[in-house]
Specification:
single chain; about 190 residues; mainly alpha; Tetracycline Repressor, domain 2; 9 helices; HTH-type_TetR-like_transc_reg
């Protein structure tokens, strides 16, 4: 059965988003061109601007899609965990899957950097991060840690760990566990 025009359009759009998410960490945000992107996606260059208002919009959407999916996975994992201490262990166990140089880690880093130059990306990234922080804060609050600072500290530690791991691959996420659990315990006693 021959795909319809709408199906071909959806397929081309998805291929472009996938290619952009691959190319950002491979080449760097500013080195992704319409031509390279279209070539990777296996579409004509004109389709980039047919499906997206600009290359910048396409790159923002692709990066934020990966970022949201990653954060949503963490939120889902939190919904299945019974204590903040177990959350620390679970999150840190997942972090060891990231080398700091893997495509997802580099995409996050590239997006953070690009957000300093692109106000629209900065706002959308901020909204995504605030939503994630709200999820983490709500999880902690349900378990007796009712401090927005705890969630922010937790998130910053995870981000920082992945950045440092790119420079020192011998780092282990489990080494952070005692410190993070201590912070949570201190915050729980304060509330």
């Amino acid at each position: 059965m021959t795909p319809t025009s709408a199906e071909r359009g959806r397929d081309a759009r998805e291929r472009l988003l996938t290619a952009a998410a691959e190319l950002i960490p491979e080449l760097g945000w500013n080195a992704v061109s319409t031509r390279v992107l279209a070539e990777r996606a296996g579409v004509r260059p004109g389709l980039v601007h047919y499906h997206f208002s600009s290359l910048s919009e396409l790159l923002r959407l692709a990066a934020l899609q990966v970022i949201r999916q990653t954060m949503d996975m963490v939120g889902l994992a939190l919904s299945q965990i019974d204590s903040p201490e177990d959350a620390v262990d679970a999150m840190l166990a997942q972090l060891d899957a990231f080398s700091g140089l893997d495509p997802t880690s580099v995409l996050f880093a590239e997006s953070y950097l690009q957000a300093t130059r692109d106000p629209e990306l900065r706002e959308q990234f901020r909204e995504t991060t605030v939503a994630f922080e709200t999820t983490v804060s709500a999880f902690f609050a349900r378990h007796g840690v009712d401090s927005p600072g705890a969630a922010l500290t937790f998130m910053a530690a995870l981000d920082g760990f992945v950045l440092h791991k790119a420079l020192n691959p011998d780092l282990r996420a489990a080494d952070l566990a005692p410190s993070l659990k201590s912070i949570l315990d201190t915050e729980r006693r304060r509330t």
